[in-house]
Task: structure prediction
Amino acid sequence: MHRRAAICHNGALPALPPGRTFTQAVMYTVPALPTRRAAGEPPPIAPGSLSAWAMALRLRSLLIAISPVLVAAALVWERTGALDVGAVALILGASVMMQVITNLQNDVGYTVRGGERSRTRVGLPRATALGLLTARQVRSAIALAIAVAMLLGLPLVAARGWPVLAMGLASIAAALAYMGGPRPIAYTPFGELVVFLFFGLTAVAGADFALTGDGVPVTTWLAAIAMGALAVAALVVNNHRDMEHDRGVGRRTFPVVFGADASQMLYTLSLLVPFALVVGLAWGIGSAWLLLPLLWLPVALRLLRDFLTCPPGIAYNLVLFRTFKLELAFAGLLAAGAVLARAMA
Result:
């Protein structure tokens, strides 16, 4: 078991001092938190501090919002030879706000619904559950993020019309509904589907339309499917890790409904299908430069092995972070391939 945990972490798994509580345990394993501590104690986090907000925002997950916009912008430039950098910045900002809304709603919504009461979850800590932020503070931040997203989207709506408005409103609604309302999406087996639709298809194809105002080509749709699949992979790690806890608190996530084997298969497909799709992208665009993401296939295969052999518990957290990084690397290589395809033509 210790050997498998080390594989998942690509290094040694830190041992917890005897008697550490659940809350201390999950705080102990968050690498993004401040490291100042004495005698192995987890870092103290002041209520309302920047560290508390960083915990709620889950900054590493923002890679899911950045990656598809980079890909869309590069593909637009490859196809048209022109790019509105200002529009790209607006789309990127709005995309990040969507992820911020989702993360904050997830933090406060799950806590308010009592999902933390069993103390059996081994995922990343939630600031509201630990009393570091109040529900009112987080909901105010959500309202601010929605306002920022709408302000960023106004010039795009003015330029491209109602399709951009529809995509923006639908994205905000999905972000709020993920852990809000009487029947949150996160309590159903459809979380992965929603992530695929909004952080894949909408993020890439929608950004393409917002930048050009033209029909979205097949090659961009292939890229959108690839990016959506990688975003799904990150959520699969989350839900697979928390399967037993979620079952106990009434969440009927994909692995709870369909089982661990189906969850592992979904992760396998989500991780590998994007690499197959780049072959279609390269053929459709007519440039071998679009095959650049295949350089990262060995990394994806190692990550898949580690996910499939990972022991239950906190070891999945690093698998999650590595999945975020894989998506960004894939997006970066795909975007670089598109840029080089144009530059070398």
User: Anything to note?
Assistant: The radius of gyration is 20 Å.
